[in-house]
Design goal:
The structure is a homodimer. Chain A has helices at residues 8-16, 23-30, 34-46, 113-131, 167-177, 195-206, 266-270, 272-278, 289-299, 304-328, 337-345, 347-357, 361-364, 376-391, 393-397, and strands at residues 50-52, 69-71, 77-84, 87-94, 99-106, 135-142, 146-147, 152-153, 190-194, 214-220, 225-231, 234-235, 332-336, 368-370. By secondary structure, chain A is of the alpha/beta class. In chain A, β3 (77-84) and β4 form a beta hairpin. The longest helix of chain A is centred in the C-terminal third of the chain and has 25 residues, at 304-328. The structure holds a DNA duplex.
DNA sequence: CGTATTTTGTTTAGTGTCGGCACAAAGTCA
DNA sequence: TGACTTTGTGCCGACACTAAACAAAATACG
């Protein structure tokens, strides 16, 4: 009777990522008939997820103009949360990666994950109460590898949390405690993941990674280096969530010792502390290492010592990226954190090093881009929370 | 009217990989009703791809016994070909990875890829004429990275071929020349791939990799090291076919110089020549380096120098595998060539090294197994050739 | 030995989703 | 204004599947 149930998920994802601005292109993208695409759009509109403009858009070309398809402005949201070394942030994020409301917060109890998670979830719950939006899910990004299927944080070292903290359970419990409703009758179940992984997902959907088939992301936080891989639109997090732990690739055989037992790991050779040290600076305690490194790069790049340090780090990073290119053969690389700043400072040098050290010119010519999304880990947490809806809107929304 | 068209491909794959021995488990695996599974099986039988036993199998349990489902013994085949440093081999391979006929051959004109490919295809065509089997496709495995979408061999160094040889085009032309028919009316189009990649596919379907979600394969040929990754049953060959070029991971910072410009690469530190050299042997020209290395390992493992050399290579290999585990987080690793022999000689040492050097105990405990299939590259070439049939039997067979 | 139970396979009817097609709508182009 | 182009919709039929009843072939148990 009702048409377009099977294509509902793919259709929503197309509108969500902005690849289906009208029903006409939706028809083409889905590979169905206009009748089906129309039914799909009507169904998604009935579910309150998208809107179809009443007035047709201004037509520049021949033929009957299309009505614009867009994400429903007042539609449901997900609760997104991010925890990093400097604090936490909660937000409500709608379809299309739109941040509807946000509330930054300060980290008060660094040593106890449960307190922080409770606080950030409560901040999100407050936003839900204020806005009155319907909540369909919740996602949390943490600066640590998250083991599957347990949902434990294996190395939240820079948060001074205990290794193995059960973040997913804590998150779900906090959601229940704060009364955040799920799509059904019970409380929401939380999705939890590594921040770089989630950032990669966000960049793939809404940022510099759009359209990439095999997207590699590498980023520094304040300490260490994280990686992520998005394959055909799905995050590849390995069989137990621990893929792309790229911090211990050897990039300087005679380099600094690393806590992993080896020397010259990407982690200790290319993170903000490495850059500050190479530039002969002693980091201060006022602001984060990442901030200090970025500031140094921005304000004192003319200083030969700073420039030399930047080039040294770029060379090391290039070696690591080349190794990853040889293994993963991505068609795009996106950099975040300090690496992004280093790319901005001297894009050609990094590209040259990667091309030179990767095996084939073909894969060496892979584009390397800066990330483009603000709060990409937060948006990524939202993307992960949206995933069940994108996969099958009917099952979630009934 | 006719039931079970959509599930035809998945059903065939289940029978093909031996995961659906009866219609009852086919029903369960497909998640459909008995009626549909029965119709699917009937359709596949009508296409001549599978057989349903007339007599029910001996029933050990309660209830009506199931009829056995199996691959049709006299059914269609694909032409599979493999080229390696010592020669080439052609075979006809049916569903289920069954080698129906095979013909080894000697390499006569090493420097010219077109002659060898013509010869191996002609050998396969002869098998087709002899057996009178219907041919549904053709696959070729070569010891080189194969660039996509061009189908050129980038580093067929050990064959003394020119880099960039257009192997896919040559293969397809040879198939036309030899009159190998495709599924339709025209000649067959050839699938071409790297031998380790195809071997990994074969091991995943029929060998030690069955059931693995993220399967990593690493193998030596005569020189150098190859890698392959099978994700959720599909080969991951990267955006341009160059993924898993693992030979240039650094495993010994102070090691031998490599043609890639670095030192101590997996390629030069763990291949057969490296083992023979470490054991103080001077390789002779009679048999292949791989054969010499295997023989040495088998016959003189009691010799302390040989054993020490083996342990050295195992340690280096373990370092490389640990690096790959950190990046890919596979749930199984399969080794081939000399690496397989080294694993057989001392399984515990390699597992301990990998566990010690990979970041998390959890991913460090990944099972490491020897490959179990004879001629796995050849079977893998057949698997790649079967793929269109497995994806959609009706489109291929009409 | 015969009947009940269990599991498998088949037949028939019904249902839901989608393609095909005709038609309507809304613009541009000449 | 009329021809053309492109988009959207309503109706019908094809078809792949489910549901449910029935049939078949073994074991289990009295």
């Amino acid at each position: 009777m009702e048409r377009g149930r099977g294509a509902l998920g793919p259709a929503l994802e197309l509108v969500h990522t902005g690849r289906a601005p009208t029903r006409a292109v939706l028809t083409a993208e889905l590979g169905v008939t206009r009748a089906t695409a129309g039914a799909v759009a009507a169904e998604l509109e009935a579910l309150g997820l998208i809107t179809v403009d009443a007035r047709p858009a201004a037509a520049g070309s021949q033929g009957r103009p299309s009505h614009r398809l867009s994400v429903a402005p007042g539609g449901p949201v997900v609760l997104a949360a991010q925890i990093h070394a400097d604090g936490f942030r909660a937000a409500l994020v709608g379809l299309g990666g739109r941040m509807v409301a946000t509330a930054p917060g300060c980290m008060t109890v660094p040593a106890d994950p449960s307190h922080i998670i409770d606080a950030v979830v409560e901040a999100g719950a407050a936003l839900l109460r204020e806005t009155g939006r319907r909540c369909l899910g919740a996602g949390l990004a943490v600066p640590s590898a998250v083991a599957e299927p347990d949902g434990t944080a294996l190395n939240p070292l820079h948060l001074s949390w205990p290794a193995g903290a059960p973040v997913r359970r804590l998150f779900t419990e906090a959601l229940a405690k704060a009364g955040v409703p799920g799509p059904g009758e019970g409380p929401a179940t939380g999705v939890t993941g590594n921040d770089v992984n989630l950032a990669a997902l966000a960049e793939h959907r809404h940022g510099a990674g759009r359209g990439a088939r095999h997207l590699l992301c590498v980023a520094t936080g304040h300490r260490g280096v994280g990686g992520a891989l998005v394959l055909d639109g799905r995050l590849h997090s390995g069989s137990s969530g621990l893929a792309l732990e790229v911090g211990h690739l050897t990039v300087n055989p005679a380099g600094l010792p690393c806590h992993c037992g080896s020397r010259g790991c990407l982690d200790v050779e290319t993170d903000p502390l490495a850059f500050l040290t190479a530039a002969g600076r002693t980091p201060g305690p006022e602001v984060s290492l990442l901030q200090q490194a970025r500031d140094l790069l921005r304000t004192e790049y003319a200083d030969p010592a700073v420039r030399a340090a930047a080039e040294l780090i770029v060379d090391r990073l290039g070696l690591g990226l080349a190794g990853l290119v040889n293994i993963l053969n991505p068609d795009r690389i996106i950099l975040g954190g300090l690496h992004r700043a280093l790319l901005d400072a001297d894009p050609e040098r990094l590209r040259a090093v990667v091309a030179d050290r990767s095996l084939w010119g073909r894969s060496g010519s892979v584009p390397i881009l800066p990330c483009t999304l603000d709060f990409n880990s937060l948006i990524g947490a939202a993307e992960a929370a949206w995933q069940p809806v994108l996969d099958d809107p009917l099952t979630v929304l009934g």
